[in-house]
């Protein structure tokens, strides 16, 4: 344990090591945070992308911070509940004939140069026989009052402005464009948010009010409203083609990458070390056998084998992890560890151990392996990013578990859905940056550890 | 100072020695096979070629010779780190040539091994307590308290006190002399009857050597140990051993009590060794030393007859280069394998084993 | 080989080197002197200091060293490990590691203070031209992938711009001089025994005909007979060529074979310099006495006595006399830096001798 403290003090002397260590620690903390705030089952559920999960999310939305880089900001997404936000008011007035007249008013300051994707209103109500009746009106900054919808609602109703046919007809008439020479109104949203009669369409900037008058007919009957506007930016990480918030996958990518990388690196290193020790100590045919297996195994391209396993056998990430470890045990590390063991085997203290009667197994575990551990630790740490990238590569190639949110999976989706051709840079950039940072952190830490544990490299 | 020397003299009286042999080696041969290209036989390295050795309880003997003379191989074979090719090694009444596993372990706990390189002999990742505990654990001392007590006792014996200060230290935190004390402690911790010390002080600073040698001598006296002291430094030998074996090219060429070896030197090689060993003498700088030309021979194809004959200033043609000399008895336990003494009675003949 | 800078062919130096080599070949084992041998002042070191920066502080390895050396003589610097003697060799030859924190003093080689020369001039004119070194464990510092003949010839090529064939001839002459068979020129280091390799290292140090050779523990890993052979060789060289030696060792016994002058180093300082006949019979400084008493001897009956304690750390050396904690003759004055008492060519730094001497 004292060695740990000394090692730590040694690490601090190298600036690159400090950076690497901080990155690795940050990743670990981030992973733990992720696993606490979004438990695994919940993450899988969120990543499934069912309607009830994603209804608030716009499709292919850029991350909110991208607006920082734009002079013309893109419209942000909005999600408000009546009565909970001061811009969304709810007034209840009782009626003489029973029930209530409930009026909702939502003020929207819209100054963007781009249209939002859509506006949704979700109504929940409770009643026994007679369902409430609502009228939705939208008032533009220039004063037009446009009726959006009128009709009855059930216990849970959802009005999507963009799908209202009658609204579209009204808007077309309202905008009064010449249908032959000028292009049709593209949709409700264009109709709602552009200046009447303008062509090319000009944004109508200013204050909009959405007014809902709801009438309930029974005692105790209530209506609640939620307004969701799908802007074109959303959240910290944006959304994908299935309207899933990328936050889930970005966050969960960290613990998965670390788990895969560390398990593979550690498992491979430990088993290799043990096999190298056995072979070197007993020598003879065992040593020869291990060397030949290693040489043959080193020639086999293991990515191809993984692809085969993934395609024909199972796409479970644990199976792939196991196969990775198996294929990597008999690799170059056995050879370099064997070189070290051969040296250690001739040490005087091991000779002394034999002289006082230590058996072979004890010599291997208590006398040889502890000598080697400091030398394999740097290799181990530096190998972690290789396995992290391996997992990501497999996902990018379409293998790997599709239900598990990982960084590689994001890149795979992005590639499949032509992210870069459509300017959705964030979709690839975010997972790529996280992969790079992970790789960088472990690599820097690994190099520094290498310099500490292998003093010959000091001064480089 | 002189009294101490005389006391040592008294030790070599009959009574002590008849206690029985700790070690009785007869005609020992240790050959290593040379292989070309991994499996093609290319001859034998005759590291030890017909060696007799007797050691009594409580006796200290030295094996002296230059590198490549076979003393290290001899020592390692006694410890059974090698297997003998021929001859017999009898330890405490038991032939140990072919012992394995438990029987061998029982023998090993009776032999303590002190190595040349104190730093290499200690596992760098173990602290003093662990290093000393290992032999106890390996030999089945299960009780933790008993182990601790034995560790404390042995550390006190090697004068590493206060003991608590040293238990948690690692080898690199100790000086060369202290490291060697730990090596000695480890060799002593199983209460051996034989101590094998391979150049125990040659890697230590000149000023520390005396300390360690005195310690070894004190331990030997206290525990009535038999000690084999292997070295190439004759100056320390006469300070620490009673009986000396001189080896050259795998064979014992002279053996005598310490004072006889120095004052009545017989073999020309021994003469050369003694002459080449310098004392800090102001006359040295004005004189050249007489050194036999050439180098020790190859052990794969050693010279016929006496192995020293190509370098010997007194070589007898047609005799030394043809036949291996037997050991001649010069009386008083002094034997020499050299044809110059062919008038003396034969002590041990060597049959055609070359 | 990479493109070499233009090397000035130093005709005089080459002739000198050749002459010395020839001189060596004329000697046989037992001739003591071939001609008249002069003893001019060759080396004069004044207040040499070399400190290293480490994590734990500045190691004051060489802390104000003074001594003189004349031609054809050998001075032996003896001391325990950690007293700074290897650093002294590096300080004289300017083979400095990267973490030097202090390097000062004067090193006069005849009439030139080498400390004043630039690194480039030092490399061209002094190192391996006038002063060379046989480093510790030299037999292990030969390049394993080059033939030994090439390695011995290399200093002639690099420093004197000699053409290859001539350099190889000189190497062959040196091989004969040090007692290595000439057909070993084409062998690799691993084919030679330890003793042979050490002789090769000595040949490499002598091939350019330097005035001064520093030997750092030249025989510590060798057997007695080989050791004796090497010292015979060094004695021959010292007696007949105008070459002086500085021998650095902890082994007092073997140092008596070569020493004309003994300098005792302790904790970074030289504490006694005495002519060797005097030193080996009656050293002055208490530490020197203790050292002499701690050596087991073959030909004497006295029981050696060891010195209690350990040398002080070079990182924060104690004030006053550095040996005071272990000195059996310590008294109050030892708390201060002891004065240097001169006895002719000898001197000692110890309060016990205050007021004596000239």
Characterize the biggest β-sheet of chain B. 9 strands, mixed
Q: Given the structure, what is the number of helices of chain A?
A: 15
Fraction of residues in H or I helices of chain A: 40-55%
- Our Rg estimate of chain B from Cα atoms comes to 21 Å
Mean pLDDT of chain A: 85
| Biggest chain contact | B-C, 43 and 53 residues
Distance between the termini of chain A: 27 Å
Q: Helical content of chain B, roughly?
A: 25-40%
Number of strands of chain A: 9
The end-to-end span of chain B amounts to 46 Å
- Helix and strand succession of chain B? HHEEEHEEHEHHHHEHEHEEHHEEE
Judging from the principal axes of the Cα atoms, what is the shape of chain A? Answer: elongated
- Would you report the number of β strands of chain B? 13
- What is the subunit organization of this protein? heterotrimer
What strand line-up does the widest sheet of chain B have? 6-7-8-3-9-10-12-11-13
Compute the gyration radius of chain A: what is it?
Answer: 32 Å
Strand-helix topology:
The complex is a heterotrimer of chains A (460), B (354) and C (358).
Chain A: H1 2-12, H2 15-37, H3 40-48, H4 51-54, E1 78-81, E2 88-94, E3 100-110, E4 118-126, E5 133-139, E6 145-152, E7 156-160, H5 165-175, H6 188-193, E8 206-215, E9 222-230, H7 246-282, H8 284-299, H9 302-312, H10 317-329, H11 332-345, H12 348-355, H13 360-396, H14 407-416, H15 425-453
Antiparallel strand pairs in A: 1-9, 2-3, 3-8, 4-7, 4-9, 5-6, 5-8
Helix pairs in contact in A: 2-7, 2-15, 7-8, 7-10, 7-11, 7-13, 7-14, 7-15, 9-10, 11-13, 12-13, 13-14, 13-15, 14-15
Chain B: H1 2-11, H2 14-17, E1 21-36, E2 40-56, E3 60-64, H3 71-78, E4 86-91, E5 94-95, H4 101-108, E6 111-114, H5 128-138, H6 144-157, H7 163-167, H8 176-188, E7 194-198, H9 206-223, E8 226-231, H10 234-240, E9 243-248, E10 251-257, H11 258-263, H12 268-276, E11 327-329, E12 335-336, E13 346-348
Parallel strand pairs in B: 3-8, 3-9, 6-7, 7-8
Antiparallel strand pairs in B: 1-2, 1-4, 4-5, 9-10, 10-12, 11-12, 11-13
Helix pairs in contact in B: 6-8, 8-9
Chain C: H1 11-26, E1 41-54, E2 57-70, E3 74-78, H2 85-93, E4 100-109, E5 112-113, H3 119-126, E6 131-134, H4 148-160, H5 164-178, H6 194-206, E7 212-216, H7 224-240, E8 244-249, H8 252-258, E9 261-266, E10 269-275, H9 276-281, H10 286-293, E11 340-343, E12 346-349
Parallel strand pairs in C: 3-8, 3-9, 6-7, 7-8
Antiparallel strand pairs in C: 1-2, 1-4, 4-5, 9-10, 10-12, 11-12
Helix pairs in contact in C: 1-5, 4-5, 4-6, 5-6
């Amino acid at each position: 344990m004292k060695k740990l403290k000394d090692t730590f003090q040694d690490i601090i002397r190298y600036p690159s090591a400090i950076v690497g260590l901080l990155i690795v620690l940050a990743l670990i903390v981030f992973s733990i945070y992720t696993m606490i705030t979004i438990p695994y089952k919940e993450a899988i559920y969120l990543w499934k992308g069912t309607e009830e999960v994603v209804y608030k999310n716009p499709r292919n939305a850029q991350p909110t911070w991208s607006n920082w880089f734009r002079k013309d900001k893109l419209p942000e997404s909005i999600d408000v509940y009546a009565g909970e936000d001061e811009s969304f008011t709810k007034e209840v007035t009782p009626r003489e004939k029973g029930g209530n007249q409930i009026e909702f008013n939502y003020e929207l300051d819209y100054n963007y140069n781009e249209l939002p994707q859509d506006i949704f209103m979700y109504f929940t109500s409770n009643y026994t026989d007679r369902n409430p009746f609502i009228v939705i009106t939208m008032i533009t900054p220039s004063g037009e009052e446009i009726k959006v919808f009128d009709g009855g609602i059930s216990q849970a109703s959802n009005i999507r402005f963009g799908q209202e046919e009658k609204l579209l007809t009204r808007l077309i008439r309202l905008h009064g464009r010449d249908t032959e020479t000028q292009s049709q109104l593209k949709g409700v949203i264009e109709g709602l948010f552009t200046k009447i009669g303008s062509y090319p369409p000009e944004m109508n900037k200013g204050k909009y009010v959405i007014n809902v008058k709801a009438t309930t007919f029974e005692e105790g009957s209530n209506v609640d409203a939620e307004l969701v506007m799908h802007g074109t930016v959303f959240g910290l990480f944006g959304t994908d083609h299935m309207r899933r918030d990328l936050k889930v996958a970005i966050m969960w990518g960290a613990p998965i990458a670390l788990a895969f990388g560390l398990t593979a690196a550690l498992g491979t290193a430990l088993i290799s070390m043990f096999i190298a020790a056995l072979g070197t100590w007993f020598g003879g045919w065992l040593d020869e056998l291990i060397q030949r297996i290693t040489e043959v195994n080193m020639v086999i391209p293991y990515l191809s084998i993984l692809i085969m396993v993934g395609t024909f056998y199972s796409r479970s990430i644990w199976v792939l992890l196991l196969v990775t470890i198996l294929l990597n045990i008999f690799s170059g590390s056995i050879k370099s560890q064997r070189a070290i063991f051969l040296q250690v085997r001739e040490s005087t203290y091991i000779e002394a151990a034999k002289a006082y009667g230590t058996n072979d197994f004890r010599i291997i575990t208590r006398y040889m392996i502890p000598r080697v551990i400091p030398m394999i630790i740097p290799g181990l740490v530096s190998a972690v990013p290789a396995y992290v990238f391996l997992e990501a590569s497999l996902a990018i190639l379409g293998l790997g578990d599709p239900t598990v949110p990982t960084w590689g999976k994001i890149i795979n989706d992005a590639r499949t859905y032509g992210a870069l051709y459509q300017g959705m840079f964030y979709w690839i950039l975010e997972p790529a940056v996280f992969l790079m940072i992970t790789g960088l952190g472990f690599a820097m830490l690994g190099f520094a550890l290498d310099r500490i544990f292998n003093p010959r490299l000091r001064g480089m | 100072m002189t009294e101490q020397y005389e006391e040592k003299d008294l030790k070599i009286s009959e009574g002590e020695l008849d206690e029985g042999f700790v070690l009785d080696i007869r005609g020992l041969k240790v050959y290593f096979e040379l292989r070309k290209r991994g499996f093609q036989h290319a001859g034998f390295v005759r590291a030890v070629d017909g060696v007799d050795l007797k050691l009594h309880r409580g006796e200290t003997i030295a094996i002296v010779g230059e590198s490549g003379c076979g003393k290290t191989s001899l020592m390692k074979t006694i410890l059974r780190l090698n297997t003998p090719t021929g001859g017999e090694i009898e330890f405490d009444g038991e032939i140990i040539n072919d012992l394995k596993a438990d029987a061998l372990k029982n023998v090993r706990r009776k032999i303590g091994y002190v190595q040349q390189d104190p730093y290499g002999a200690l596992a760098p990742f173990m602290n003093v307590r662990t290093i000393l505990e290992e032999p106890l654990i390996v030999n089945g001392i299960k009780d933790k308290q008993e182990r601790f007590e034995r560790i404390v006792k042995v550390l006190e014996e090697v004068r590493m006190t206060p003991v608590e200060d040293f238990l948690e230290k690692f080898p690199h935190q100790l000086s060369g002399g202290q490291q060697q004390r730990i090596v000695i402690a480890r060799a002593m911790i199983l209460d051996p009857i034989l101590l094998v010390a391979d150049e125990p002080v040659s890697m230590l600073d000149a000023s520390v050597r005396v300390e360690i040698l005195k310690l070894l001598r004190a331990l030997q006296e206290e525990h009535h140990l038999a000690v084999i002291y292997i070295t190439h430094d004759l100056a320390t030998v006469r300070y620490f051993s009673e009986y000396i074996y001189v080896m050259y090219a795998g064979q014992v060429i002279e053996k005598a009590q310490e004072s006889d070896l120095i004052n009545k030197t017989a073999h020309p090689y021994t003469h050369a060794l003694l002459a080449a060993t310098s004392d800090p003498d102001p006359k040295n700088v004005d004189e050249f030393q007489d050194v036999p030309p050439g180098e020790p021979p190859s052990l794969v194809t050693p010279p016929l007859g006496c192995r020293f004959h190509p370098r010997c200033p007194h070589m007898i043609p047609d005799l030394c280069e043809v036949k291996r000399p037997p050991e001649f008895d010069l009386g008083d336990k002094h034997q020499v394998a050299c044809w110059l003494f062919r008038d003396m009675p034969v002590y041990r003949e060597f049959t055609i084993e070359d | 080989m990479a493109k070499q800078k233009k090397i000035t062919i130093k005709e005089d130096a080459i002739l000198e080197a050749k002459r010395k080599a020839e001189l060596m070949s004329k000697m046989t084992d037992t001739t003591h002197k071939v001609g008249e041998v002069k003893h001019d002042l060759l080396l004069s070191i004044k207040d040499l200091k070399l400190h290293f920066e480490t994590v734990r502080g500045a190691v004051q390895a060489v802390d104000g060293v003074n001594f003189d050396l004349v031609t054809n003589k050998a001075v032996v610097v003896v001391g325990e490990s950690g007293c700074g003697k290897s650093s002294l060799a590096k300080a004289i030859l300017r083979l400095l590691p990267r973490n030097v924190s202090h390097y000062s003093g004067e090193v006069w080689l005849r009439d030139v203070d080498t400390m004043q020369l630039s690194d480039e001039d030092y490399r061209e004119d002094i190192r391996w031209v006038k002063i060379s070194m046989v480093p510790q464990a030299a037999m292990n510092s030969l390049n394993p992938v080059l033939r030994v003949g090439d390695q011995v010839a290399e200093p002639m090529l690099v420093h004197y711009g000699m053409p290859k064939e001539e350099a190889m001839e000189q190497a062959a002459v040196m091989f004969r001089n040090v007692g290595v068979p000439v057909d070993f020129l084409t062998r690799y280091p691993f084919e030679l025994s330890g003793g042979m390799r050490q002789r090769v290292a000595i040949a490499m140090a002598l091939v350019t005909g330097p005035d001064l050779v520093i030997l750092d523990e030249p025989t510590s890993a060798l057997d007695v007979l080989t050791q004796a052979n090497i010292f015979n060789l060094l004695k021959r060289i010292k007696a007949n060529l105008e070459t002086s030696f500085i021998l650095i060792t902890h082994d007092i016994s073997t140092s008596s074979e070569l020493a004309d002058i003994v300098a005792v180093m302790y904790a970074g300082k030289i504490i006694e310099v005495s002519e060797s006949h005097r030193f080996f019979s009656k050293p002055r400084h208490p530490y020197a006495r203790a050292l002499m008493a701690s050596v087991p001897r073959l030909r004497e009956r006295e029981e050696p006595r060891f010195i209690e304690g350990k040398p002080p750390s070079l990182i924060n050396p104690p004030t006053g006399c550095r040996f005071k904690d272990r000195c059996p003759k310590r008294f109050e004055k030892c708390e201060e830096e002891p004065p240097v008492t001169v006895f002719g060519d000898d001197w000692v730094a110890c309060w016990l001798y205050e007021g004596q001497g000239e």
